Amino acid sequence: MKNWIWLSMLAIALTGCAGKTDYRNSCATQLDAAWQEQSLAEAEGFAGTVSYSKALALLTGAKTQQQFEAFRGCTEKAKKARFYLRESRAGR
Fold this sequence. Notes:
The chain is mainly α. Helix content is about 85%, strand content about 0%.
């Protein structure tokens, strides 16, 4: 009986750990793409400095979330950052 309780607790703990990695690849991919887009936007020059500033703040937050393994939030912030980088290149 004690073994079943122990195994149940172990299974629950491992399930919780596995759930943290759901967005790991997406986070990394979105962050890499956003940083590349940021470099292009900076090199091209543009009028949309407000959008650019928003994007940089979101990228910083996404990187922080990646470090703390909050991959879902990282992915969402990186996607928003990419949107603002597109807006900044359009001069908005």
